[in-house]
Amino acid sequence: MSAVTVSRTAGRARVGSGGAAGTGKATQGRRQRRAAFWFLLPDSLGLLVFVVVPMVLAVVLGFFRMDGFGSFEFIGLGNYVRMVGDPQFWSSVRITLLYLVGVVPAIFVVGLALALLVQQRIPFVGAIRSALFVPYVISLVVVAMVWEFMLSERTGVVSRLLGAVGMNDLAFLGEPNLALGTVVVITVWFQMGYYMVIFLAGLQDIPGEYYEAARIDGANAWQRFRTITLPLLRPTSFFVVVTATVSVITGGLDLVFVLTGGGPAGSTTLLIFYVYEQAFLFGELGYAAAIGSVLVVVLLAWSALMFAVTRGGRFDND
Amino acid sequence: MTDTLPRTRPQARRRRQDSRWSRPRVALMILGIVLGLLTIFPLVWMVTGSFKTAAEVNSASLLPADPTLDNYRYVFTQVPFLRYMLNSFIVSATVTVLALWFHSMAAYALARLKFKGRDTIFLLIFSTLLVSLPVILIPTFVVVRSLGLVDSYAGLIVPAIFNAFGIFLLRQFYVSLPAELEEAALVDGASYWRIYRSVILPLSRPILSALAVFFFLANWNSFVWPLTITSDPDLRVVQLGIATFQQQYAGDWNYVLAAATVAALPTLLMFFFFQRQIVESIKNAGFK
Lengths: 318, 288
Known about the structure:
Chain A is mainly α.
């Protein structure tokens, strides 16, 4: 439909441009405006209804007590007051921060180390890269199942391997002190390939002459890494930290849902899982929306910061 | 890393550096192979386990002593697995096609057309970049419910189409194209729609195919949204199907592993055939 409209205006504009140059330019401006309107319409409408409205609604719903059956009642700041005094909320914030502190540095170091390895001209490097990347394409539901199978107490392959080297069996998913650490390791396992590829792209952008020059000056591998690789990789590193942070805050829901269900004893209840739990297990949609709106505000602030720092998403060097 | 070895004559050094099979490189290769095998081990363990009998599935041997297809036969006869896969395919393919179409249109306007308010619109779209579906799951559910789309294909498909990420990447790509591209067509009086169709789209084939693989994988793997928006077993997508299956057959690992392998197989196949596209789209996502 938009095609018809646009070409009709195009035809008109052509007639217009046959006249004086000034009016032709004005018509062309109008033509562009109308075309832009139709080109932007589907996505703008969709983003409005399915992203912007929900974002606003998260805040609005936060002022209501609302259950899963659609009845609601205005309670002002009630949900937010409740949040401040809710130990489970604060526990989920703490667990999310621990998850963040566990995953982001690990993924940074592992991703960069793997990129440095597969950047080398070594035999079978293509196959090695593929193997390191492949967990990333697997769904988190399957990831959760496979690890649950491997980590089964007594019968799982991990427990057998530990037994074979004389170590005690550990309940990696059943012990509150271990479960979050296990989730961190699994997260690093399936995400490291993604960050490896990003770092690899960053490494390939560093001109080889720099290394040649450093080599001639007698710099060793560590010195070259510290004085050339790390500084020139700064835009990539920044991008990795930003995306890893966001994906850690917003991701993990599928994994926790299938792997641990937030347990044992709430030890893997990430904030995003707590929101889900409140909404769909306890039917507290209003309270869940209020918690969610905090996340929305945090992420909007992140975006603003990112936009400012990168001057509109340009992660390249200045 | 290669020159931590003592250096001898320049000629010998060059020979060693040129050769992929020099000693340090072989050492790195061994390290890489060990890490690679460790990484894929869980997936190999899943696949081989799916061919083991119930009695053997908890054994510590990698290969089944007595390989069997019974687990697969059981999974496909006990639950409508083909239906689940068909549902996932319909949803993923539709989302991918519509998303690429809409995003490329929006990106074209934002990158190549001049109009008032363009920067504001771009800023607004950018501001939603980090707000993904899990974060706004509850309000989105409320919106979709009030539109009457609970338990429908539309409810699975439509909300998954819109994200700023695809628009952003395509816009970056279109901004980088030379300005002369459209000029000739514009002088000939072509409409902007025709320029988009016959100049811009053909040029964006590589980036579109990269994004297509990426979008399809993401939607094939999606779990929480289908879980939230559907309860009708006929609308069950494959991830939801295997999660439900696991709940019913908890402990019957031979069956669960077969179901998981079936769900993972399409993504593994896509990876082997479209690895380059997947890697390309991740590199593009580096905002370069």
